[in-house]
Amino acid sequence: MEHEIIQELMVFVGLMAALGSFTKIVLxxxxxRKPLAGPAVPALEEISQRLGRMEQAIDAxxxxxxxxxxxxxxxxxxxxxxxxxxxxxxxxxxxxxxH
Length: 99
Prior knowledge:
By secondary structure, the protein is mainly α. About 80% of the residues lie in helices and about 0% in strands. The protein has one domain (about 1-80). It is built from one helix and no strands. The N and C termini lie far apart (about 105 Å).
C-alpha cells in the first residue's frame, strides 16, 4: 500500500512539473510577442509624419506649377499683343540624323 502511494505521488509530481514547464513555455511565447506590437505604434506615427511632409511638398509643387503657368500665359499675352510671330519653318535648315 505504501509503495502505491509513493508511486501515485511521483506521478502527481511529474505531471505538475510537466504542466509548470508547459505553462512557462506558453508565457514566454506570449511575452515575446508583446514587444512586436510596441514598435508598430511609433512606426504609424513616423508614417503619419512622412505623409504630412509629402503633402506639404506636393502643395508647394502645385503652387510653383501654377506660378509658372501664370508666367507663361502672361508672356504669351505680351507676345500676341506685340504682334510677334514664330519663325517660318521653311527658313530653317533641315538636319538629317543617322538611325
